[in-house]
Amino acid sequence: LEEAAFQLQQIFRIDISIALNILGIESMRAGHCRVAFTCFKLAADRGYSKAQFNVGLCYEHGRGTEKDLEKAGFYYCQAASSRHPMAQYRYARYLLQHGPGRPWDRHHKAVALLEQAAEAGITEAQAYLGVFYMRGLRPQEKRGLKYLLQAANSGDAQSRFHVGVCYEQGLGVQQDLAEALRHYRQSAAAGNRQARDRLRA
Fold first, then answer.
1. pTM of structure
2. Taking the domains of the chain in order of start, what are their residue ranges?
3. Which InterPro entries does the annotation name (predicted)?
4. Residue 176: which residues within 8 A CB-CB, separation 6 or more?
5. For 69-79, how does the pLDDT look when each residue is reduced to its tens digit (9 = 90+)?
6. Which of 48, 117, 152, 156 gives 89 a disulfide partner, CB atoms 3.0 to 4.6 angstroms apart?
C-alpha cells in the first residue's frame, strides 16, 4: 500500500510538472514571459527536465527574468543529467565558453555531452562536433566528416558547405571535386552564401 501511494505521488508530481511546463510554453507564445518563467521554474524545481531546459533558456536569453549565464548553466546541467539531448548540447557549449574548473576537465566533459547529443540527433551538436574535430589542436578529419555529414543530412546548409570543403581539399576523405561541387550546389540551393561564393570561384 505504501508503494502504491508513493507511485501515485510520483505520477501526480510528474503530471503537475507537465501541466506547468505546457502552461509556460503557452504563456511564452502569448508574450507573457514572466508568467512563463514562473511556470517553468515551478516545474523545474520539481525535477522535470523539459522545464529545467526551458528555465536555462530563460536565464540565457533574459526572458521573463534577468539574464544570468551561471544560472542557465546550472539548469542546463540539471536537464542534461536527465539525458535531455538539447540541454546536453547547451550545457556543453556553456562548459566550453563559461564553465568553472580546469579547462581540460571542462573540455572532456563537454565533448562527451556533445557526442551524446549528436547521437540523439541534435543537428547543432553534430555540426559543432564536425567543425570541432576538423579544427582541433589534433584534427580528427574522418571523425569530423562523420558528424558534418550527419548534420548535412539533417538539413544544415552550413555543414553541407563544410562537407564540400572536405571533398575539395581531401580532408577525411579522398579528394573528389565532382562530389565537392555536388555538396556546394546543395548548400547554395539551401541559401548558404559561402557555398554560392565558392561555386562562383
1. 0.83
2. 123-200
3. ISR_Activator, Sel1-like, TPR-like_helical_dom_sf
4. 167
5. 999 999 999 99
6. 117
